[in-house]
Amino acid sequence: MSIVKVLGISGSPRAGGNSETLLAEALKGASSQGAEARMVELRTAEITHCQGCNSCFSDGECRIEDGMTSLYELLTEAEVIILSSPVYFSGLSSVMKQFIDRCQCLWARKVVLGRTVGAPGRKGALISVGGQSSPVFRNSISVARSFFNSIDVEYMGELTAPAVDSKGEVFDKPWLLREARELGETLAKRSEPAP
């Protein structure tokens, strides 16, 4: 049996932020199940914005060559994708949203060109952290669901962490670290074939 490839996408603007810490725990959980787990930190990826040129409608490829170029292959090869982002103004961070917008070419492959984006049976989830104690995750979840649907990934759910703001504060809530690890373990397990 082949090794499950798990890709974690960190949308944290700060290294070692709370959302990135939870993502790292999820990837540890995936690795404990024998998965090949990798994290991409978007803040260092030098990704520009989608220019809305629609050139990807002709071949499913983005004409912009930058930090996204290598990520497209990782995205299409991954069997599990975990997005992780803090909440900014009731939504995903700007680097995460920019990354998602640049996946327009993958949407074009699926919707405009009628091609598959990746292998069937791929799974995805969202980890999101918000400083407020009240629920502020609705918009982030909505965008994550839409993103995964656009690239042929089944959305499996989310881990949300309200009232976590200062860097490192997540370590004061060990149950969140445990839940993140369990999320990674669950996502990395292959579905058993039906009898």
Summarize this structure as a short list of keywords or feature phrases.
195 residues, alpha/beta, Rossmann fold, 7 helices, 5 strands
Compile the SSE list and pairings.
Blueprint: E1 5-10, H1 18-32, E2 36-41, H2 56-59, H3 68-77, E3 80-86, H4 94-101, H5 104-112, E4 123-129, H6 138-150, E5 154-161, H7 174-188
Parallel strand pairs: 1-2, 1-3, 3-4, 4-5
Helix pairs in contact: 1-7
| Average pLDDT reading | 92
How many individual helices? Answer: 7
Number of strands: 5
Q: What is the domain total for the residues?
A: 1
**Amino- and carboxy-terminal Cα gap:** 18 Å
Q: Which superfamily, in CATH terms, is the homologous superfamily? A: Flavodoxin domain
The structure class reads alpha/beta
What is the percent of helical residues? 25-40%
Biggest sheet record = 5 strands, parallel
The amount of beta strand, in percent, is 15-25%
CATH topology: Rossmann fold
Low-pLDDT stretches are 191-195
In the CATH scheme, the class would be Alpha Beta
What is the gyration radius calculated from CA atoms?
16 Å
Question: Architecture in CATH?
Answer: 3-Layer(aba) Sandwich
* N-to-C series of helices and strands: EHEHHEHHEHEH
Strand order of the largest sheet: 2-1-3-4-5
Shape: globular
